[in-house]
């Protein structure tokens, strides 16, 4: 008798922004030591894993054309890594992934990491593995620095290369406007540019996140706004000088503050409430400083099964 093919599993995964990103020294393995505060946002990708057919990956939505459809795709690598982790490498050959993107590609919002986290959770369910999220996070950390956070979501303090996570108290919802740039930025290039800027001089550093963590707990966006900070922002602006204009335009439109998300080039603008975010988004969309504008809120949960 043939084994029944399990039904497809669809997982929804959040994007992230870094409310605080302090970049330390380069380690022996080439990564930089980080202290960062992640927040998961309602801008999401969806990953469906299907068994019983040919392997491969289909991608649609935001930036789909520039997503690799081969082994370079982090979600494809995630399927293989999970199959190997449970000692069944052949399982990866019979999984097809369908990815619907809402998160910009190479935008500094961990879109590729979200897809990898989605693939891990979807396959663990598809294969009937009863794995704890912490075990999935161990596999996730081997794939990329931001993949574990995409599994947990919420708001978290990240250390190491960003993969060591502690949840942060943040019961309140914050409202954001996101400005996508025309093209993405390569994360290694942005880190390299920061190293270059630091060799040439000593660009200001964001310092410790304590005050920001207190502001998060208070839930007051007016307190949080002046504390947003990202050491990679200067490097992203150095590579993409137009971002300075984008950041200014968001504040002129009524945002409380703007910050480059991760390695950029997406800019995230904190707004006082949902209505203000809609107004800022409309004005920013007309300012001609970015390709697309989205509103989002956070924190939201990490990767979770999406029932149709
Ligand atoms: O871990 P991930 O593959 O997302 O990292 C992409 C690149 O970003 C790394 O190859 C490295 O150049 C840079 N990076 C870093 N320090 C970190 C995280 C990323 O230098 N903590």
Automatic annotation (TrEMBL):
Keyword hit for Glycoprotein: no
Reaction(s) this enzyme catalyzes, per UniProt: 4-CDP-2-C-methyl-D-erythritol + ATP = 4-CDP-2-C-methyl-D-erythritol 2-phosphate + ADP + H(+)
Binding residues for ATP: 104-114
Gene Ontology biological process terms in this record: isopentenyl diphosphate biosynthetic process, methylerythritol 4-phosphate pathway; terpenoid biosynthetic process
Keywords assigned by UniProt, alphabetized: ATP-binding, Isoprene biosynthesis, Kinase, Nucleotide-binding, Transferase
Catalytic site positions: 16, 146
Domain GHMP kinase N-terminal: 73-154
The EC number(s) this enzyme carries: 2.7.1.148
Record's protein name: 4-diphosphocytidyl-2-C-methyl-D-erythritol kinase
Origin species: Saccharomonospora viridis
Protein's gene: ispE
């Amino acid at each position: 008798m043939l084994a029944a093919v399990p039904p497809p599993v669809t997982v929804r995964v959040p994007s992230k922004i870094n409310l605080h990103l302090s970049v330390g020294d380069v380690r022996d393995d080439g990564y930089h030591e980080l202290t960062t505060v992640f927040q998961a946002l309602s801008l999401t990708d969806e990953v469906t894993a299907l068994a019983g057919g040919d392997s491969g990956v289909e991608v649609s939505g935001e930036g789909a054309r520039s997503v690799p459809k081969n082994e370079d795709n982090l979600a494809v690598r995630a399927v293989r890594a999970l199959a190997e982790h449970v000692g069944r490498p052949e399982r990866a050959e019979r999984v097809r992934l369908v990815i619907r993107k809402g998160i910009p590609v190479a935008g500094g919002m961990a879109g590729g990491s979200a897809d990898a986290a989605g693939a891990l959770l979807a396959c663990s369910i598809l294969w009937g593995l009863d794995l704890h999220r912490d075990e999935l996070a161990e596999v996730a950390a081997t794939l990329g620095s931001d993949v574990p956070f995409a599994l947990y979501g919420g708001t978290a303090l990240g250390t190491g290369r960003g993969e060591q996570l502690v949840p942060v108290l943040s019961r309140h919802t914050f409202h954001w406007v996101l400005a996508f740039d025309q093209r993405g930025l390569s994360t290694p290039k942005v880190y390299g540019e920061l190293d270059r800027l630091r060799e040439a001089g000593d660009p200001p550093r964001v310092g410790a996140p304590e005050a920001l963590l207190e502001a998060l707990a208070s839930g007051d966006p007016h307190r949080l706004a002046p504390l947003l900070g990202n050491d990679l922002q200067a490097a992203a602006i150095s590579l993409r000088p137009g971002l300075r204009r984008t950041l200014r335009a968001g504040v002129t439109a009524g945002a409380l503050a703007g910050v480059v998300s991760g390695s950029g080039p997406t800019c995230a603008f904190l707004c006082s409430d949902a209505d203000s975010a809609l107004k800022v988004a409309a004005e920013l969309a007309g300012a001609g400083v970015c390709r697309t504008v989205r509103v989002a809120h956070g924190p939201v949960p990490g990767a979770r099964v999406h029932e149709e």
